[in-house]
Amino acid sequence: MKFVRIALLFAAVLTVCSAASKKSKSVYAFGLSASFTDSVVYYTEIQVLDSVHLDKSGFLPHRDHYSYQLKNYLEYQQGKKNRTCMIYFSNNPAKLSKERVKLLGKYKKDKAVLLEELPQAAFSFKKAED
Predict the structure, then answer these.
(1) Residue 130's pLDDT band (boundaries 50, 70, 90)?
(2) With CB atoms 3.0 to 4.6 Å apart as the test, which of 4, 33, 65, 112 could cross-link to 128 if both were Cys?
(3) Predicted local distance difference test score (pLDDT) of residue 22
(4) Does residue 109 surpass a pLDDT of 60?
(5) Domain layout of the chain by residue ranges
(6) DSSP result, 63-96
């Protein structure tokens, strides 16, 4: 009986430890699109990327796919050609929000640039296929 209790306790501890080690943080991202031939800079809301985890180096796997999603949306849905699209990502939404405010602040300083937000209802990132 004592052996069964110890075995069950050990199994419970092992389960909790393995669940805690597999628990990973969500990945948050936003996109930005600029062009040398257009004064409008498009940017997305900060979004949670579903079922995505950063790799061991802290990079977003297939991050180029997310940039192309934004580029394709602007080209084929909105008719905006020759856009350069970038994606910014982090596990920490507060840190990403601060980076977004800082980046958009640089564009706001230029009076010739117009900022336009793409709401998540219009555009959202989809998980990149492996």
Answers:
(1) low
(2) 65
(3) 46
(4) yes
(5) 25-118
(6) HHHHHHHHHHIIIIIS---S-EEEEEEES-HHHH
